[in-house]
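Sample intake — YiaA/YiaB family inner membrane protein
Collected from: Streptomyces fimbriatus
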Amino acid sequence: MSDTPVKQQSTAAFYGQAVASFAVALGATAIGIFNLQADAWVRAFLGIAVLYLVTSAFTLAKVIRDRQEAGQIVNRVDQARLEKLLAEHDPLQKL
């Protein structure tokens, strides 16, 4: 059976870049909404919309990751079954 890892780990640099990028984007959006020349209710609405967008993006990323991991597990089980059948098969055995 192959020893292919199910979970691939990203590097610390990639993780740091992703966190920094998220922080910069969220901070810039918050500053832009705060400095917007509009009524307070408009800025509050935009702030709530940004928070909803962020939580929706996290949920979508989790769902996609979970679906991918489930597919990898199914593929590993199917591969193990195939390897077992091939290992038990004797082509020289009379039928």
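Post-analysis note: The mean pLDDT is 85.
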